[in-house]
């Protein structure tokens, strides 16, 4: 819960001893394969040279390095992309953003969301993708074999996240996400420019969609800051720099209500070190129009 998360440090900085890097598999994961080119390694800002346009999200969550190895067999090609993140929470954050509708292959020896052309995998502090994009596709058995050959060397790790702080009632399964800055938040809502929630690349927030029985639908975002003073400062900054398209409709010492440009309601409340935000509130059961009620 939130108290346990805060007791663990709140910011989820990597506190565990970093295990040794797992070995990149040789071509013997399946018969007939060979490495296609040398191992390529990307660290820090070098990631833009490999995934320009998508590197920001990895860096925001805490990217350490990417090791990339291609394999070939005739016209088939497999590519292992092993992203090492600074913590298991960082890897989970990226995985949740990238998994789409989670469709696991049970043969993969870790949590995954996969299809024939790409396996997307989470284990410990590693976010892993295996691409199957050759002119002639590799078999599912071969693709999974490569993934499992790498995963065998990856240590199991866990880290507390604020996902457990999201109430269960009404939560839409599979909608849970972690955020750590503006790039993660941007697909869901715009509260203002830049790091509007003062996450600083250190604090994690958790969000999910909700559909309350007989009530409204909305998205809930919970951010546990490391100390109440940090939450007070974050709340003040958010309120002072709120996007001009959001109109404040009700004000309280530790919160306010707003309406967005689509006339959907929202609310922000601070309690201790916790900021709870609800946005895109819609009525699931609109009142039917009454015929002839015009005035």
Could you please describe the fold and organization of this structure?
The structure is a single chain. 19% of the residues lie in helices and 31% in strands. With 295 residues, the chain is of the alpha+beta class. It has two domains: 17-151, Protein Transport Mog1p, Chain A, CATH 3.40.1000; 162-283, no CATH class. Strands 1, 2, 3, 4, 5, 6 and 7 form a seven-stranded antiparallel beta sheet that branches. A seven-stranded antiparallel beta sheet has the order 8-9-10-14-13-12-11. A hairpin with a 4-residue loop joins strand 9 (205-211) and strand 10 (216-224). The radius of gyration is 22 Å and the shape is elongated.
Mean pLDDT metric: 90
Our Rg estimate from Cα atoms comes to 22 Å
Terminal CA distance: 52 Å
Q: Which runs of at least 5 residues are low in confidence (pLDDT < 50)?
A: 7-16, 286-295
Question: What CATH architecture of the largest domain do you see?
Answer: 3-Layer(aba) Sandwich
| Order of helical and strand elements | HEEHHEEHEEEHEHEEHEEEE
**Largest pleated sheet:** 7 strands, antiparallel
- What's the multimeric state? single chain
């Amino acid at each position: 819960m939130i108290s346990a998360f805060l007791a663990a440090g709140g910011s989820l900085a990597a506190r565990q001893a970093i295990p040794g890097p797992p070995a990149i598999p040789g071509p013997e994961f399946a018969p007939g394969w060979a490495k296609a080119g040398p191992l390529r390694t990307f660290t820090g800002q070098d990631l833009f040279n490999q995934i320009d346009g998508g590197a920001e999200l990895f860096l925001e969550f805490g990217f350490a390095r990417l090791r990339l190895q291609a394999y070939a067999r005739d016209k088939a090609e497999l590519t292992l992309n092993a992203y090492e993140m600074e913590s298991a929470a960082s890897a989970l954050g990226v995985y949740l953003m990238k998994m789409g509708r989670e469709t696991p292959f049970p043969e993969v020896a870790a949590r995954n969301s996969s299809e024939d052309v790409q396996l997307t995998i989470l284990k410990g502090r590693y976010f892993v993708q295996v691409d199957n994009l050759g002119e002639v596709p590799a078999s599912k058995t071969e693709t999974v074999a490569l993934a499992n050959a790498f995963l065998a060397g990856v240590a199991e790790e866990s880290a507390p996240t604020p996902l457990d702080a999201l109430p269960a009632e009404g939560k839409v399964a599979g909608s849970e996400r972690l955020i750590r800055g503006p790039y993660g938040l941007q697909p869901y809502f715009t509260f203002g420019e830049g790091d509007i929630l003062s996450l600083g690349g250190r604090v994690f927030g958790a969000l999910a969609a909700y559909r309350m029985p007989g009530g409204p639908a909305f998205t809930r975002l919970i951010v546990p800051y490391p100390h109440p003073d940090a939450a007070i400062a974050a709340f003040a900054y958010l309120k002072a720099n709120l996007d001009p398209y959001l109109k404040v409709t009700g004000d309280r010492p530790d919160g306010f209500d707003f309406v967005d440009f689509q006339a959907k309601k929202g609310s922000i409340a601070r309690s201790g070190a916790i900021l709870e935000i609800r946005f895109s509130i819609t009525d699931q059961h609109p009142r039917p129009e009454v015929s002839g009620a015009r005035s």
